[in-house]
């Protein structure tokens, strides 16, 4: 039986499909979850959500900078997304972002998706370090990154304003050696 580096015990990572618009449009209804991931924006119309999802599905991705949908292995239902960005091929570093819809929190989907992407970036693309920025008010994500073995490397104080308050951005990092020690 063939295996894929994009499949874990609970989730599978795949490209975005036009029909994913409905799940992601619904996830955007939870303002606090949206704030934890990036920034709150005015509501999008269904037409715009469909158009943007279709455009994302048709976009050409680079081998190192990409966005994937996190789906459950059980029923292939979208539960979130993970993307890589801020790729520095010279120094071998990259960052990633992850968002999981509120109904799917605390089921292990985020941690498994992160481990799968790190394995690809470290072992297939030869990167040596992953970085993630987490807002200081996002206690769940702070705990997740610590649990996964990320090291807190720094903090940008009062660098984001949301919901009437300023948040610090906490920088987490993990080297390929740290990943290998924990997950190989």
UniProtKB/TrEMBL annotation:
Annotated GO MF terms: acyltransferase activity, transferring groups other than amino-acyl groups
Residues of the N-acetyltransferase domain: 11-177
Entry-linked InterPro entries: Acyl_CoA_acyltransferase (IPR016181), GNAT_dom (IPR000182), N-acetyltransferase (IPR051531)
Superkingdom in the source lineage: Bacteria
Keyword Acyltransferase in annotation: yes
Pfam families, alphabetized: Acetyltransf_3
Keywords for the protein's UniProt record, in alphabetical order: Acyltransferase, Transferase
Family: Belongs to the acetyltransferase family. RimJ subfamily.
Protein name in UniProt: RimJ/RimL family protein N-acetyltransferase
Organism of this sequence: Nonomuraea rubra
């Amino acid at each position: 039986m063939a295996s894929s580096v994009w499949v874990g015990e609970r989730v599978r990572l795949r490209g975005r499909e036009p029909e994913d618009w409905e799940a992601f449009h619904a996830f955007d209804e939870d303002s606090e979850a949206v704030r934890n991931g990036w920034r709150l924006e005015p509501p999008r119309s269904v037409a715009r959500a469909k158009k943007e999802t279709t455009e994302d599905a048709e976009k050409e991705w680079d081998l190192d900078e990409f966005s994937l949908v996190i789906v459950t292995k059980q029923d292939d239902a979208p539960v979130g997304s993970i993307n890589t960005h801020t790729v520095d091929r010279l120094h071998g570093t990259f960052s990633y972002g992850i968002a999981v819809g509120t109904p799917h929190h605390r089921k292990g989907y985020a941690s498994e998706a992160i481990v799968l992407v790190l394995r690809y970036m470290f072992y297939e693309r030869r990167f040596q370090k992953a970085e993630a920025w987490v807002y200081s008010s996002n206690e769940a994500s702070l705990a997740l990154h610590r649990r996964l073995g990320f090291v807190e490397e720094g903090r940008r104080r009062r660098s984001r304003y949301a919901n009437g308050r300023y948040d610090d951005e906490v920088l987490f990092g993990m080297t390929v050696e740290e990943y290998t020690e924990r997950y190989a």
